[in-house]
Design brief:
mainly alpha, 6 helices
């Protein structure tokens, strides 16, 4: 990473792994620290006043979510996947992780990957800090922001986080096999194993099948089925 200050190597892994660096084109974009702290703003009139809720409502419209917690879960799962992908991809490729301090990351809640996140200053950290960077730095305050404003369970959110992390591992595996870089896959799996041992993530996935032990609620969307790692064998009946 120290020899790739723009984190350009991440682009090879896919769009979810890319992280824009420098100042964003729209200087008004809030930091993620501001996004996690925002509460009770009129998001219909002020786009960046409460980015977390703005994103949930945007997702709700896009997927026609029947209730707020479903949209909150889908939005959270996608954002967790972005954060894990960037950090784990860097750990696998560079054996370092970028400092993703929420005060350094600006977020356009109205954009999609990879243009929604901008790291204004690239600082390198040891790869073993990945849990501090993503779990403690983002997933904990993001969950707090969601749960303070919407009826979504902590167990569901940590299940999302685990599913997103395993998804990043699988994508890195595929890239490593295709490109003959199995040392990259090995580093990703080693870091993921450490992360899954943390109390917040331990027990969220079946250790053999890697299926979730909670549901992201995707099946409740119009036309929605079961995810590949769903805890259910068939969609449960709706009440």
């Amino acid at each position: 990473m120290d020899h790739d200050p723009g984190l350009t190597a991440l682009s090879a892994l896919g769009a979810f792994f890319v992280l824009r660096t420098g100042e964003p084109p729209h200087s008004a974009l809030p930091t993620l620290a501001e996004a996690y702290a925002a509460r009770d703003a009129d998001v219909e009139k002020e786009v960046y006043a409460n980015p977390v809720i703005f994103r949930v409502r945007k997702v709700a419209r896009s997927v026609r979510a029947p209730e707020p917690r479903v949209a909150a879960s889908i939005a959270h799962l996608g954002f967790a996947a972005r954060l894990w992908s960037v950090a784990l991809g860097a750990a696998a490729l560079y054996d370092r992780v970028p400092d993703l301090d929420p005060r350094l990351l600006r977020w356009d809640a109205d954009a999609s990957a990879p243009d929604e996140l901008w790291l204004t200053e690239v600082r390198s950290l040891p790869a073993e800090r990945i849990g501090d960077v993503v779990r403690d730095g983002h997933l904990v305050p993001l969950a707090a922001a969601l749960r303070a404003q919407l009826p979504v369970s902590a167990r569901l959110l940590w299940g999302n986080a685990a599913s997103a992390l395993m998804g990043a591992v699988r994508q890195i595996d595929r890239w490593a096999i295709t490109n003959g870089r199995m040392e990259v896959a090995s580093r990703a799996r080693a870091r993921a194993a450490e992360l899954f041992a943390h109390p917040d993530l331990a027990g969220t996935l079946d250790p053999v099948t890697h299926r979730r032990r909670s549901c992201c609620l995707y099946y409740r969307l119009p036309g929605g089925g079961l995810c590949g790692d769903c805890c259910f064998d068939r969609p449960p009946g709706r009440t």
